[in-house]
Amino acid sequence: MKNAYIFPGQGTHYYSMGNIMYNKYHLAKKIFNKSNKIIGYNIADIMFNSPLKDLSKTINSQIAIFLYSIISFYLYKKKYSIYPDVVAGHSLGELTSLVASNVITFEEGLFLVYNRSNIIQYIKKYNQLDTQMVSVIVSNNNDIKYINQYIKKYCYNKSIISNYNTPKQIVISGIKNTIMNICEYIKKNNFSKYIVSLNINNAYHSPLMKYENMLFIKCIENINFKKPICPVYQNIDGLYHTDPFIIKQNLKKHMVMPSLWNKIIDNMILNKFYNFYNTGPSNTISNMILKISKNVKIYNIADYLF
């Protein structure tokens, strides 16, 4: 059976993450120490010892999740000789998937994640937009269509469905007051009883990230994308790609376009991928996949390494 390696996005971190792998595996220690030198500060110490509120800062959490996921991938592949037939990353995780598939080097991946997180935090400091993200689990799959119609009619350019995670779970990003109106519309029409505001004050995967995206594109342009060793599924279209030029062009739109995670998993299953290897620090992405299909086998790598 064909193997799909999955790389998670922001929000999957936890206090002391990576500490066990650092102490148990020489390769992990080597990569952490190398990363500290590249970015110019001790991210390992922040991951292992800092309070969760410090680790949760964008400039720390994105790098932490990237490092944990790619190191887990290297360790598991080496220990069990299970190589990827395909890769995909949820949101931020797409950058990790590009390293795993050799489209970019580890150093280039770290460079992109470091700059992505710093750009987001820097722009937010000076951006006056009051933005928000909410997670919504709808009662019926068709409800998403009506929510989307309402957003396009009344909240155009101010809010968007930014993540299609499962058949019933979406994330909406946008200006806070329009998000409130959308939530009222959802409640009024009984489309959902589960609406949760995420602890994120940015509008990821929406046009409201256009300034961050412009700066991020400049970072991407400096890197030579290579042909992947296996197909890479990407967030903006839910399809797999092997042409490095197309992969690069897609990544340039990554921050301002919705993440079509549900479509990625559906297409993987259509292409006979049933073994999924979650490289991340939590089971969040595994649970998403199981809500899309029960006919798959998911391996949470941490259970086998630590």
Question: What does the model show?
Answer:
The chain has 14 helices and ten strands. About 45% of the residues are buried. It is of the alpha/beta class and about 300 residues long. It folds into two domains: about 1-125 and about 205-305, Malonyl-Coenzyme A Acyl Carrier Protein, domain 2 (3-Layer(aba) Sandwich); about 130-195, Malonyl-CoA ACP transacylase, ACP-binding (Alpha-Beta Plaits). The chain has helices at about 20-25, 25-40, 45-50, 50-55, 60-80, 95-100, 105-125, 145-155, 175-190, 210-220, 245-250, 260-270, 285-290, 300-305, and strands at about 1-5, 85-90, 130-135, 160-165, 170-175, 195, 230-235, 240, 275-280, 295-300. The strands form two sheets. It has a six-stranded mixed β-sheet with strand order 8-7-2-1-9-10, with helices on both faces. A four-stranded antiparallel β-sheet has the order 4-5-3-6.
Shape, principal axes of CA atoms: globular
Count of domain modules: 2
Major beta-sheet overview = 6 strands, mixed
CATH superfamily of the largest domain: Malonyl-Coenzyme A Acyl Carrier Protein, domain 2
Helix content: 40-55%
How would you classify the helix and strand content by structural class? alpha/beta
Rg: 19 Å
Spatial strand arrangement across the major sheet: 8-7-2-1-9-10
Overall CATH architecture of the largest domain:
3-Layer(aba) Sandwich
Beta-strand share of residues: 15-25%
Top-tier CATH class of the largest domain: Alpha Beta
Strands, count = 10
Uncertain spans: none
Can you count the helices?
A: 14
CATH level-3 fold name of the largest domain: Malonyl-Coenzyme A Acyl Carrier Protein, domain 2
On the 0 to 100 scale, the average pLDDT is: 94
